[in-house]
Amino acid sequence: QVQLVESGGGLVQAGGSLRLSCAASGSIFSINTMGWYRQAPGKQRELVATITRDVLANYADSVKGRFTISRDNAKNTVYLQMNSLKPEDTAVYYCYAYIRAYGSGYSAYWGQGTQVTVPS
Fold this sequence. Notes:
Blueprint: E1 2-7, E2 10-11, E3 18-26, E4 28-39, E5 46-51, E6 57-59, E7 67-72, E8 77-82, E9 91-101, E10 106-110, E11 114-117
Parallel strand pairs: 2-11
Antiparallel strand pairs: 1-3, 3-8, 4-5, 4-9, 5-6, 7-8, 9-10, 9-11
């Protein structure tokens, strides 16, 4: 079995920073793209940032220049450094990874979600 475990969410004042972490564990053969999505109340889940195994990053326009995605391939972990947070960043943040488990092909896996709240 493969699972993703997130940490680092919380409440922060506007202009502040948070760092999210997501560690993949289990019967992992390899990990391709990892990333973060978010879902605000009453809205659809949206892409925040993704990063390939070769460390090519892609960001939503709304977070460019404020958020930085990174990964540690040795630890099967992806991070999201969030700076200059705004109230509109309030959402549940979900980790995502495209993983090939032993004995199978690639599948998408999701974390359980971590709440980020930026009061207005």
